[in-house]
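Tokens for chain A. Residues wanted.
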């Protein structure tokens, strides 16, 4: 019986000064963002990598990146009691709660 959780993707990103300034300029008080983040999707996922940058109540901002570009996008929670964003590729991650 295989009860192991899926292995996480090993990809990492270091946010640049503009990305960190974007988070600092948000009007809502939020925890500070780490400058280096790891992909939270399962190993072997399709599409861009993704890491939660910042969450305030129901508002989440995810950093998504490829080898050539990165962007910050707002998302809602995955509806399956998962700790990832709605519409994420791959399997569901256990809830952060």
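Reply:
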């Amino acid at each position: 019986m295989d009860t192991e959780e899926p292995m996480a993707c090993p990809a990492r990103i270091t946010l640049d000064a503009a990305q960190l300034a974007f988070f600092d300029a948000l009007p809502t008080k939020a925890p500070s963002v780490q400058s280096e983040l790891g992909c939270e999707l399962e190993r072997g996922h399709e599409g861009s990598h993704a890491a939660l940058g910042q969450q305030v109540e129901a508002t989440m901002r995810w950093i998504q990146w490829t080898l050539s570009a990165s962007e910050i996008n707002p998302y809602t929670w995955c509806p399956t009691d998962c700790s990832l964003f709605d519409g994420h590729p791959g399997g569901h991650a256990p809830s952060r709660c």
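The chain has one domain: 1-97. The chain has a mean pLDDT of 86.
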